[in-house]
């Protein structure tokens, strides 16, 4: 999709590489299961159907899960005014605008294409951010739509759980259909399937999370360049990250499934081991990148 968001060839290249590698990994995985399990064809068909449904209805599924609803300009004039202004500045189609009635301060964009995208913000975010800070967050999410990484991460994230789904279904199929032949060979077969599945899941998870971390830095950069206010986006990051720490942990765990799509993760990921599998770069890394960009753009110090 053409827009005034600066093209990010590194992001595009990374998305292509990750999707190609995931396709190869899962192609080999399916081939291995075909050799090991007779019922895998049915599993592949079902899993493929689920993938198509998730891709086609990802916007509706995300809004339902976050208890969000679409709002018009009369209901949310401030939000619509900001989105209208930024879309005009970026020369891109305006997505649907939605609000999630939760105090968790966050935002996300979803949808299979720019023409079927939804930009959703939470009530907690609207309540906490000033105008220029909100512009920075909205521009960040619009960048995801413009660069098409929303649909890529939707597909990639689904493939990350495909291995577990396929093996679980295969396991129960064999368990119910093979009671008379459960022996050492069968046990060894399923042990091998589980090992292969775990390896595939680990590789895919690392690929997806590496792409996710880079795309967040890319969206920060594009948003700051579009608005010309890296400091406002940095301020929003600090404010949102600090306030998330005050949200009840039960609410954070509920929202954690959306970490890959959120502006900031629902739960912090600080330890080096956890950070290697995190969906977002560390807060300090994002702030440092915005500080460098602020100097490049010659933004006056606040």
UniProtKB/TrEMBL annotation:
The UniProt keywords, alphabetically, are: Cell membrane, Hydrolase, Membrane, Metal-binding, Metalloprotease, Protease, Stress response, Transmembrane, Transmembrane helix, Zinc
* Biological process according to GO: proteolysis
Active-site residues from the entry:
141
- Family named by the database record: Belongs to the peptidase M48B family.
One Pfam family from the record: Peptidase_M48
Major subcellular location class: membrane
Compartment list: Cell membrane
Identify this protein by name: Protease HtpX homolog
Which top-level enzyme class is recorded in the Swiss-Prot or TrEMBL entry? Answer: hydrolase
The way it spans or sits in the membrane comes to: Multi-pass membrane protein
State its Enzyme Commission number(s). 3.4.24.-
Species this chain originates from: Streptacidiphilus jiangxiensis
Please name the GO terms that the record assigns under molecular function.
metalloendopeptidase activity; zinc ion binding
Segments crossing the lipid bilayer: 12-34, 40-57, 150-167, 187-208
Matching InterPro entries: HtpX_protease, Pept_M48_protease_HtpX, Peptidase_M48
Instruction: Report the gene name.
Output: htpX
Cofactor names: Zn(2+)
Domain Peptidase M48: residue ranges: 75-292
Q: Binding of Zn(2+): at which residues?
A: 140, 144, 216
Q: How is the cofactor bound?
A: Binds 1 zinc ion per subunit.
GO cellular component terms given for this protein: plasma membrane
């Amino acid at each position: 999709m053409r827009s005034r968001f600066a093209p990010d060839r590194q992001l595009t290249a990374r998305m292509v590489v990750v999707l190609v590698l995931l396709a190869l990994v899962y192609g080999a995985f399916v081939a291995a299961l075909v050799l090991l399990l007779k019922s895998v064809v049915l599993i592949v068909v079902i899993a493929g159907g689920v993938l198509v449904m998730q891709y086609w209805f990802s916007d509706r599924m995300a809004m339902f899960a976050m208890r969000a609803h679409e709002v018009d300009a009369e209901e949310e004039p401030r939000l619509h005014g900001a989105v209208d202004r930024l879309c005009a500045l970026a020369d891109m189609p305006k997505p649907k605008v939605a609000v999630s009635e939760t105090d968790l301060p966050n935002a996300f964009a979803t949808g299979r294409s720019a023409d079927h995208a939804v930009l959703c913000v939470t009530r907690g975010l609207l309540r906490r951010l000033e105008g220029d800070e909100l512009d920075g967050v909205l521009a960040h999410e619009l960048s995801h739509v413009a660069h098409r990484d929303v649909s890529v991460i939707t597909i990639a994230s689904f493939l990350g759980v495909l291995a577990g789904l396929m093996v679980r279904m295969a396991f129960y199929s064999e368990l119910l259909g093979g009671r008379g032949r459960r022996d050492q060979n069968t046990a060894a077969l399923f042990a091998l399937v589980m090992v292969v599945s775990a390896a595939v899941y680990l590789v895919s998870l690392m690929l997806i999370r590496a792409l996710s971390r880079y795309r967040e830095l890319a969206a920060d950069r594009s948003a700051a360049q579009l608005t010309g206010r890296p400091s406002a986006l940095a301020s929003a990051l600090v404010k949102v990250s600090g306030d998330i720490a005050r949200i009840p942990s039960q609410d954070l765990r509920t929202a954690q499934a959306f970490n890959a799509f959120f502006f900031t993760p629902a739960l912090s990921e600080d330890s080096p081991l956890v950070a290697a599998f995190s969906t977002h770069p560390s807060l300090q890394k994002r702030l440092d990148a915005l500080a460098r960009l602020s100097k490049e753009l010659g933004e006056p110090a606040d």
